[in-house]
Amino acid sequence: MKVLEHPARTVKPQGIGARVLRKEDQRHLQGKGNFIGNMTMPELNEVAFLRSPLAHARITDMRVPKEALGRVFLRSDMPDALDIVADSTLPSYQVSAMPPLAHDKVRYVGELVAMAFAPTRAEAEDLTELVEVDYDDLPVYVDSESAMRATGDLIHDEWKDNVFVTLKADTNFEELAAQAEVVVNKKVSLGRQCMLPMEGMAVLAYWDHQADQLVVYAGTQVPHLVRTGLAEFLELPQEQVRVISPDVGGGFGYKCILQREELCVAWLAKTFKKPFRYMEDRREHLIAGAVTREHEYEITAYANKRGKVLALEATITINGGAYSVWPFTTGLEAGQAVGNLPGPYAFRGYRCTTRAVATNKPPFMPYRGVARTGVCFAIELTMNAIAREVGREDWEVRFENLVTPEQMPYINVTNKHLDGGDYPASLRRALEMVDLEGVLARQKKGASDGRLIGVGVGTYTEQSAHGTSVFASWGTPLIPGFDQAFVRVTPDGGLEVRAGIHSHGQGMETSFAQIANDILGIDFSRIKLVHGDTDRTPYSSGTYASRSLVMSGGAVASACKQLLPRMRKIAAHLLKSGDAAALEFRDGKFFVAGPSQDENDPLGGQQAGDSPRGVGAFPAGEASVSIADVAQAWYLKPHLLPADVDTGGLEISVGYKTKVDTGAFTYCSQAAVVAVDPQTGQIEILDYVVVEDCGIMVNPMIVEGQCIGGIAQGIGTAFYEETPYDEFGQPLASTLADYVMPGATEVPNIRFDHFETPSPNTEFGAKGVGEGGGIAPPAVLFGAVNNALQSLGVEMTQTPLTPHRLLTAIEAARHAGENTSTGTTGK
Length: 827
Description:
By secondary structure, the chain is of the alpha+beta class. The chain is built from 19 helices and 32 strands. α14 (508-520) links the parallel β24 (495-499) and β25. α9 crosses α10 and α17 (700-720) packs across α18. The two termini are 55 Å apart.
């Protein structure tokens, strides 16, 4: 058994581990960001879409008036735009072809039916209203259960049933389940919700006649993938497509797929050789945009009398909406669910069946924490149920089941390679931070205002930086491999870094500069990141799955390290040192110990004008040249170079992937204290603490910012956010008056502690952290609320936990208690 050591690290002022202020903030705080909505160009037309008012119907006829011809388009007008097909190699997978515009039938309210363009958005919307469409209603399948029961009028006529994919796992289940002394069954569910980044979907496309190229500005997390998709579905060679992602106002997964609106706008630019733009409004987003999270779980846990889990059986049902999105497919959500349900726990028996079901709702999309918010919610509420069954505290049962540091690195029951850390210590620290003993005393005493106090905990793993083998097992059509980075020293000693990922708020311009500074010592202000442009950057599959810092950041680190020997050789020649390896490198300079050959002539007879920068002597006793001196020699004074100089020069492109490509595993424990008013159903978060370990932190301030943002979203999942539908598939939350989000007053002051267990499989020991904050809050907060309500016999298991649902449960428990006391039985 191996325990990772945690050696003390020296943090350089601008390097890895420094709390450097974000480079991006200055332009954003001053309103000088470059977003698609800010762009203007001659002859720019705005695009609007006609959307289906019905959830499931056949289109029997469509009519466009003569005055709108040439400005309004149906699917039949786009023969050279292919349907978006997200195929998969998963054996049970059924393929859904998503047309740019619906033509034979519509499958959810808000599906695109026609598009129009005009000089203004208002005029384009007026044109869409001239289109007449005749529909024949079909049965509507709003929930997974009704969809799975259907035998005719399927959502996709050529399918055998309404199930996208079924995945199964079975490891040692029967043998270990038979040894159980305690069996606990639990049903939990998560409501459907929206993603709501500050900036909705945005795309602007035009034809560059000089380059003979389709140029698409897209607010995307994955410019290289979008380029691949547009080229495929518009039947263009990839070199004739350029995708540029400027500043992006948040994504959360919504912007890591090819959107059909992007395809439509690109088709207009390709066809008419003019610029076109579409900007999604908030109502469109809420009705038909990014929907996610709708999971149902039935879990049976088999444990001993102490609550140690021996085996787990689960059935997971995911409401996948009408289509499988490109390129990740619904297989991604299903695969993450079946693979990550065990989380940080060390049981060895497992049986799970996961179904992604097609329904008459917008397509399910990857959202921050893909499936892991659901599996964490399910497994943590199950742990709480086990604790009640065996008569122990929630946290005691967790300590019984968590993987211990002595077991690390640990391969769990679903073959996840947990790469290191101390899971029990993180939970212990979280309980210390909330003052568990004090909370329990306060709970026992009771609050003077009648509110009930509760404490909840949760520990999770965040599988980040998923590699080739993981995506291959999910059967996605595009599988990430090596991420590439290009670095170039400029003639005056600055550094250009080019990477194929793209930022949508993570602070990459800052973090990547810190990585480069840590290795090369070039001043942070002199390091520039170029990203988000397929013509200017090396290939990367993009920003998602908490992969960017590990993968592209690892590529940047590798490139900088590989550049150093080239510069060292030039520096040794400039210093008249025969041993390049003996040079010391620090703070961006190469040093040779001892006095120089001639303190009055440090360059060995060269004139001052022949020195790399034409400057005077080295300091007495320690000769040195800087990276800027080396760059001057390479670019501007090649007569000073050694005869056998590396002709690759001061620029290099490097591909990188982690040593173990099943992912790095960040872990975290969170704890919350809440006060619940049983009279009003109001819940106040009194305290919230986070103990996270994402390996070596490049910038702790950015890590904490990521966690705070994720926790805010997790609070929304737990208490506020829901996209409900009526029986006809009509969305009932189409504005922010109906769709409730947490604001500043609903997000508490979040307190942090950090562990740093370096990953043995990545450059500089980093792990991903971008999704983690959003994984645990529903589990932690529901645990706290249920802990507060235990004296009332109430347990909440469905998100969001609204006051109405809470009061209804309290009232039901009260009636059940009254019936029990009087000897009656209620139905």
